[in-house]
Amino acid sequence: MSLLTRSAAKVAAATPAPGGGPAKQAPTSGYSRQPLTPYLLLLPALAALLLFVYGPALLSLIGSFFVIPLSGGSWKYAGFNNYLKVFADPLIHQAAWNTLVYSLATIIPSIVLGLLLALLMEKMGRGSWLAKTALILPMTANMVAMAVVFKWIFAFQGGFANQLLGIAGLAPVNWLDEADTSLFTVILLGLWRATSLCMLLFMAGLTTIPSSIHEATAVEGIRGFTKLRTVILPMLRPTVVFVTVLSITGAVQVFEIVNVMTKGGPVGSSETAMTAAHKVGFEYFRIGEASAISFILIALLLAVGVIGRQRRTKETS
Amino acid sequence: MTTSNKVHTALATALGIMAAALALFPFYWMLRTAVAPAEGLTTTGLSLIPGEFDLSNFIRAWDKANLGQAMLNGIAVTLGILVLQLLTCIPAAYALSKFRFRGAGFILGLVLACLLIPNQATMIPTFVGLNLLGLGDTRLGLVLPFVTSAIGIFMLRQQMMAVPDAIMEAAKTDGLGPLRTLVSVVVPIAAPSIAAFSMLSIFTHWNDYLWPLLVARSPDIMTPPLSLATFQNADTGFDYPALSAAAAIVTAPVIILFLLAQRHFVRGMAGTEVAG
């Protein structure tokens, strides 16, 4: 048998027989003898997703209707009591308001700055990779470490921010221990980080614009802001939606920087949804209420995600 | 190049350098404080350029924040999670990209929907569940919820889709079974996205704070960010040089990894936006 016919026979063997029983479900790569293979390959991952993603989401819903002792022991049905308590709690009101302020103050500027920086990187001459590296670094930074550093930069005594104020002849500010400035200081760190993430994603998005587009606009003489508005932004729409969804979920779930910098204080002035949930659950040991807050957050962010996904499908189709 | 182009590039470069300086300043201030003598710091403040160097801060930080143990724990937890995620994500991505089977669409939907469920917000209920299993305050508990990653499955699947069917057929005719094909054909082709996902996983879990904060009560299983936060909460609140040194130690591994493999990471991230 010649080589050619041998391989032809192999191809014929690999091609599913038309109308045959097992061929109907034959996998594309042709392991029809082992129909269980894909399920076995998926089993560990699926089991883990059910246990650790769907399970907790469901548990937060169930748990929100119970009084739960953290030390173990039986759960006590509480009806809607946890929700009523959450909605009546001034700490939660403050946290909800602060989370809204934090979100607005970080999301919009970080998206605008991130886009501008990504565009700027394309315009920079030699050495732009150095600037890129520097600007992406905040994204990889450990936020507990950065919160510690920011706490020192904004320390009342000896902090760099107050040194600068001193040079300008202004009185020092007790940034983190005053109710008026604590949230603002946390926002600065959140913005520093979020801008870096937005820029990275916009940079990735910009690379997907084919160079022929840039050539065509150059030929047409479309440049600067006009090019941004009429060509670049429309092509970046999927990236913009994705960055927006990611920014919202990131901002609404802000936790470590608040926990390390201010613990939500002073007097709740920088409390956010997650720090409040953590406090309610693990300082006041009201796990049922913490579950209710978690469930509200999950439902809210799920809605944001679903809307974002619909937007993107609509735009790409 | 025209003069106006040159002016534009120069302007862009100047702005870029300013932005980069702002991005780097906290890192610089961390290192600058970490080498400053501890005495008189809060009364005089610090100059931008260090005058005297005092490296003993690092030793004090290492001892007081129990960083030796914490770094070992961090490495064990991060690598443990990474290995488990690769072991679960690679086969799952392979099944979802190279097999046709009943329920494939539904299962892909289940994976994609996980990307929409916010991770920090599920941590408290996850902890409630883990506590029911009696796994609070254990190393296993630090790793267990992260044995797989929906984003990982998705990233790897996208790349494996690009493996040509002809190659799969060739592997089959060479007598390779599905697992051998995965190991010797698909994984090498998917290597760039495996590398990018691995970095994302390492960044995420080395830096994670909320989950270890909930789970790790005993000091001997604490991870670096948790040890740092505990060190800060302790009475040493004003020992900024030691705190900064500890922060630098905790930050360093991930930053070094990023600088070494930056190109893979940025390129790999380009594919993730389809996921959200």
TrEMBL record, chain A:
InterPro entries: ABC_transporter_permease (IPR051393), MetI-like (IPR000515), MetI-like_sf (IPR035906). The chain crosses the membrane at residues 39-68, 100-121, 133-154, 183-209, 230-255, 290-308. It is found in: Cell membrane. Residues 96-308 form the ABC transmembrane type-1 domain. Its main location: membrane. Keywords: Cell membrane, Membrane, Transmembrane, Transmembrane helix, Transport. Coiled coil: none annotated. It is a multi-pass membrane protein. Belongs to the binding-protein-dependent transport system permease family. This is Glycerol-3-phosphate ABC transporter permease. It comes from Arthrobacter liuii.
Automatic annotation (TrEMBL), chain B:
Residues 71-261 form the ABC transmembrane type-1 domain. Keywords: Cell membrane, Membrane, Transmembrane, Transmembrane helix, Transport. It holds the Pfam family BPD_transp_1. It is a multi-pass membrane protein. This is Sn-glycerol-3-phosphate transport system permease protein UgpE. InterPro entries: MetI-like, MetI-like_sf. Its main location: membrane. Belongs to the binding-protein-dependent transport system permease family. The keyword Membrane applies. CDD domains: TM_PBP2 (cd06261). SUPFAM superfamilies: MetI-like. The keyword Membrane applies. It is found in: Cell membrane. It comes from Arthrobacter liuii. The chain crosses the membrane at residues 12-31, 70-94, 106-128, 140-158, 179-203, 240-261.
